[in-house]
Design goal:
The protein is of the alpha/beta class. The chain has two domains: 68 residues; 273 residues, 3-Layer(aba) Sandwich (Rossmann fold), CATH 3.40.50. Helices cover 38% and strands 13% of the residues. It has an eight-stranded mixed beta sheet, sandwiched between helices. A two-stranded antiparallel ribbon has the order 5-6. Helix 7 links the parallel strand 7 and strand 8. The chain is globular and about 85 Å long. It holds the Pfam family Esterase.
Length: 375
């Protein structure tokens, strides 16, 4: 077994737990049996005992982390855990047909030459999820563009992301600025959406348990954004993307409402709703079926104008596959069924677990892929 692969070894995780339990017991017995001598020797033994206890606590922490990592596959190698991943390749991940973009020079009197953060409060959520940050490109503030509508990307964060934290979890605006400046995409705005709308409730961008997360996005957020900002207004200018839970939301909404979104992408997406309690006990087979992208592909009910890019690591147990999930983790199944369809291109990564460190480096290529459809 390679040293990288050993981080996911069940025997390593179990061994650390046993070591964390036995080592302090052994040291304690030894210290009790030898607690004699002069005061300084006793003090020295006490200091050594303190160091040993601290070491045992560190071992216990590592043991717990290894158990969690072994269960969820967050890090697939020591190099990834230590931040030593090689930069992602730039070529041959997905075909990109570059389209002409609008090059809008930034004038000297532009009030926001670096772009501007704005935002709105949207009703229908708990207070911590009601604020939606909006990033506007510098071109938005050019006088010559004062009556022009810009493309908009609705970015849906992971399950625990608020709108304000979504750009921290997976940085979007930095790559966006660079691509706009380099003329790879059109100037566009970004709206950051939370991964949930009620604290402790996993609604998966669906309607469940009296919480209509899906309608909140489509019928509350989008009309309010398009009323307050010169963005969207027509399908050709609307895009949606996300990470993890947000990736599933984007995959579901692009194929369920193709009249609303031009294209989208998902980082570590899955393809049917994976509810946590208490929603997992409330989800009916009909609800899951109606929001399953896998089912739409299987039944052939995917409109030809759907465009969705999936970025998935084959080592990601929460997105690609996990035998222990008994088919719940469906990335590999979706790939097998959809890979021949023009609507669903893929970027398949060979390494990396279900962490933002695995997927964030692929944001620029994913945004560039959207650029061929008008972003």
């Amino acid at each position: 077994m390679s040293i990288d692969g050993s981080i996911l070894s069940p025997s390593l995780a179990d061994g650390m737990v046993v070591l964390a339990i036995l080592l302090p017991l052994v040291i304690g017995v030894i210290c009790v049996g030898r607690a004699a001598g002069t005061w300084w020797r006793r003090a020295l033994k006490g200091a050594i005992g303190c160091v040993v206890v601290l070491a045992c606590q560190g071992i216990a922490l590592v043991a717990v982390l290894l158990q969690v990592n072994q269960s969820y596959g967050l890090y697939t190698g020591w190099s990834q855990l230590l931040g030593q991943q090689a930069p992602p390749p730039r070529q041959n991940l997905v075909k990109i047909r570059h389209s002409p973009v609008r090059r809008i020079p930034i004038s000297k009197d532009n009030p926001h030459p670096e772009g501007e953060w704005s935002g709105i409060e949207v009703e229908g959520t708990d207070a911590m999820y009601s604020h939606l940050p909006v990033w506007l490109p510098p071109q938005y503030f050019e006088k010559s563009q004062s009556h022009v509508s810009f493309p908009v990307l609705y970015w849906v964060g992971g399950l625990n992301d608020t709108g304000e934290h979504a750009n921290v979890t997976v940085p979007i605006t930095g790559p966006a600025e660079k691509l706009i400046e380099d003329g790879q995409v059109n100037p566009f705005a970004v709206v950051f959406l939370p991964g949930r709308i009620r604290e402790g409730q996993d609604t998966e961008c669906t309607s469940i348990g009296g919480m209509d997360h899906q309608s909140w996005i489509l019928d509350t957020v989008m009309p309010k954004i398009e009323k307050h900002f010169r963005v969207g207004h027509i399908r050709a200018q609307r895009f949606i993307a996300g990470y993890s839970t947000g990736g599933y939301c984007a995959a579901n909404l692009t194929s369920k409402y193709p009249d609303r979104f031009n294209a989208g992408f998902g980082l570590a997406p899955y393809f049917h709703p994976l509810f946590d309690p208490p929603q997992s006990s409330q989800a009916t087979p009909l609800l899951i079926s109606e929001n399953s992208v896998v089912n739409r592909v299987r039944s052939g009910h995917v409109p030809r104008d759907v465009r969705f890019l999936s970025v998935i690591s084959k080592a990601d147990r929460q997105a690609w596959s996990d035998p222990a999930s008994k088919g719940e983790i469906d990335g590999e199944e979706f790939w097998k069924k959809a890979r021949s369809m023009s609507q669903y291109p893929f970027m398949l990564l060979s390494q990396g677990g279900h962490t933002t460190g695995t997927y964030a480096p692929y944001v620029p290529q994913s945004l560039e892929w959207l650029g061929q459809y008008g972003l």
